[in-house]
């Protein structure tokens, strides 16, 4: 876990930023998933539109970007990398994000919700491998314990899902869905590690504005790719009919898409923020934790049933979350100890 850029912050300030980003990720993802479910329940069926709204809400991020811009001038980091390097990073990551979103859409189309969720939980295992080789992430017993417990929690929730899978799906399409979801989970884990590597080795900035810039510019690229796919596939021709046939009405159709786009951006800021503040593995652990939090939101919003298995899964997720948080606390204390010793020695020498 590399929190070196934030060692200048006070202990409680750093943890406050981490807590804020955890809230953004959990609340944003839960809301986005529920809105996405509402979209399909009310008659929406465009895969490319569902892909587009995951990144199309990036304009709202210009507001906090402009508010945080003055503080970014106080950064003591080295000169910014060349524009061509930044453009290449944003283009590659943005294109990968678009592909990842589409793979998830294809997987959910051909798999049942429970099978889909179980496969999605494998992103933690993929991220553990990528973090080890790309980000030099060290593993301890607490981290492994957290990964295992959270994976079991996600699997329990998936098994307890009462919804039935799509009917009429052939073995060939099932295989496509399985490979698409597995590939999307691996690609998502790779994206987190690549973002962390970009922050550490290329961007090297010490302000949160770099997090917003990363999210905005990659979302621009991903949205452009999704728009091209929307028109190339011909799905745009059915959007007007889809709006007219939306059970909740045209206004609700538009508002559903708008708020889905916004909540996905809130979630993405939390994801990228945790990568910048802590690590890609930590961000992925919190993302997996949301698989246990989302049923609570569904219980309130859609009156879903909360059985004993889901309660146990949520308790497991909280235990895994606490295990990882405690490990991060130990690492954070160890990282700050040399700086504290230096300050104490200076104070003693001045006396």
TrEMBL record:
Alphabetical keyword list: Membrane, Transmembrane, Transmembrane helix, Transport
Membrane topology type: Multi-pass membrane protein
InterPro entries to which the protein is assigned, alphabetical: EmrE-like, PUP_plant
Protein location: Membrane
Presence of the UniProt keyword Endoplasmic reticulum in the record: no
Annotated TM spans: 12-36, 48-68, 88-110, 116-134, 141-159, 174-195, 216-233, 253-278, 285-302, 308-326
Family the entry assigns: Belongs to the purine permeases (TC 2.A.7.14) family.
Protein's name according to its UniProt entry: Probable purine permease
């Amino acid at each position: 876990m590399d929190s070196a850029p934030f060692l200048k912050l006070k202990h409680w300030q750093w943890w406050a930023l981490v807590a804020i980003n955890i809230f953004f990720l959990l609340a944003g993802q839960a809301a986005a998933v529920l809105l996405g479910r509402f979209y399909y329940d009310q008659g929406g069926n465009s895969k490319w539109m569902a892909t587009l709204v995951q990144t199309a809400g990036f304009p709202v991020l210009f507001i906090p970007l402009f508010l945080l811009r003055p503080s970014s001038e106080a950064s003591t980091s080295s000169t910014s990398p060349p524009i061509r390097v930044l453009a290449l990073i944003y283009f590659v990551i943005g294109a990968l994000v678009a592909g990842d979103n589409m793979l998830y859409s294809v997987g959910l189309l051909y798999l049942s919700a429970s099978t889909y969720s179980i496969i999605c939980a494998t992103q933690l295992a993929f991220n553990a491998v990528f973090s080890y080789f790309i980000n030099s992430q060290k593993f301890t017993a607490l981290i492994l314990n957290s990964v295992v417990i959270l994976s079991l929690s996600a699997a329990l929730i998936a098994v307890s899902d009462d919804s039935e899978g799509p009917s009429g799906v052939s073995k060939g399409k099932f295989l496509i869905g399985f490979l698409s979801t597995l590939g999307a989970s691996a690609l998502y884990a790779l994206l987190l590690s690549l973002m962390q590597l970009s922050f550490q080795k290329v961007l090297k900035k010490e302000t949160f504005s770099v997090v917003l810039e990363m999210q905005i510019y990659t979302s621009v690229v991903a949205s452009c790719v999704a728009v091209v796919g929307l028109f190339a596939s011909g799905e745009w021709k059915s959007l007007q009919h889809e709006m007219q046939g939306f059970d909740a009405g045209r206004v609700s159709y538009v508002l559903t898409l708008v708020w889905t786009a916004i909540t996905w951006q809130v979630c993405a800021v939390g994801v990228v923020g945790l990568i910048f503040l802590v690590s890609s593995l930590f961000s992925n652990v919190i993302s997996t934790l949301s698989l246990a939090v989302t049923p609570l939101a569904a219980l309130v919003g859609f009156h879903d049933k909360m059985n004993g298995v889901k309660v146990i899964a949520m308790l497991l997720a909280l235990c895994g979350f606490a295990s990882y948080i405690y490990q991060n606390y130990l690492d954070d204390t160890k990282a700050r100890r040399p700086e504290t010793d230096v300050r104490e020695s200076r104070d003693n020498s001045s006396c």
